[in-house]
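Let us practice reading a record.
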Amino acid sequence: MDLKFGTDGVRDIYGARLEEAAYNLGRAMRGDVVLGRDTRTSGEALSRAFIQGASDAGARVLQAGIMPTAGVAYLTQKAGAQFGVVISASHNPPEYNGLKVFSSEGAKVSDEEESRLGAALKVQNVRKNSPCRVIEYEGAREEYIDFLCSAGENLSGCNIALDCSNGAASVIAPEVFCRLGANVEAISVGTSGADINEGCGALHADTLVRRVPSGFDLALAFDGDSDRLIAADREGNILDGDRIMYIIAALTMQKGVKTDCVVGTVLSNGGTQEAFEKMGIEFLRADVGDKYVKMLMDASGAKIGGEQSGHIILSDYAQTGDGILTAVVLATLLKGKRAADYDYPVYPQPEVSLKVRDKGSARAEAVQAVAEEWRKRGVRVLVRPSGTEPKVRVMTECADAEKAERAMEEIIRALKSADM
């Protein structure tokens, strides 16, 4: 099956096919391109392939080295480059890698540009092996750290634990929080890439409290390219993306800044929507994917938007999700306060990711019939193919936990039958 360029670029298990995709995307570049990567061991090889493709196309690459995805987006706009490219597979396991592309504004590319880049993947290019047009982006890391620090305030007296997922946050987040004056304990700060996301970071929030040192005011966990943030408060309560957005909105309003609406997704818990509405804030739901969140934010004028998984966009600061930026804003607003004071009840919401041979089974008639039957019985159901892995993701939600679990069991059975 051919690789496809989607809302998060292209992603695959590393190999010759992905190297060819990196070269082809390089050939589609124009002007100056800021290039960054996470810590994966395959990142250097893909960087070389991309740089050769860009050089063959006459583009010039400004190489930023290990850099969070949002850092590349920020630097692209600041440097006046035509594109920003990140070599990363985000939250996926170490054997995966991929490429994300940003526009000159530091945002996800338009649908038209996405189509052009998708077509570029299919071109059988003859390599010119032109001399590489690449320069080191001097001061890239310092520029991004300065920007992040500018979004926060003095955190002296705050005990902050950081889980950097052995990814790109490892070279940025500890320095940011130290400069802001916090007492910092950082774990999973390896940069070999062999263990990125492995048993650590935002994907393993259920074990976050056990992994971080004791006595923290706030624990902050990122994924491999640090565009996600999941946190834990001093009582050990996990704060997912929905709860983080709620805390930021509530504390921002306490400072006198009016918030009319916030954007979540179809996965956001019904309790989250009710909590926002009790504050007088309209809660809008976008399709899953930060691109769709940003589109609805632009259409509605919302300044805060994000996903339960920890992708959060704070458009007063940036045009894309930034886990470290969100962490800085959250820690600043919570200084001297308890996150638990901003808790709210949620509905039971089982979620399962089922490995499948054919992701099209999510749309099978029998699967959709079971899902619709449970919707009629008061269960909110979402069945969707993963955009990056051979999995179908299922979510059920209901005030009656037993009913939500039964719905999940029946849908999983239907999926397994459809996938045979």
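A brief commentary: DSSP finds 13 helices and 18 strands in the chain.
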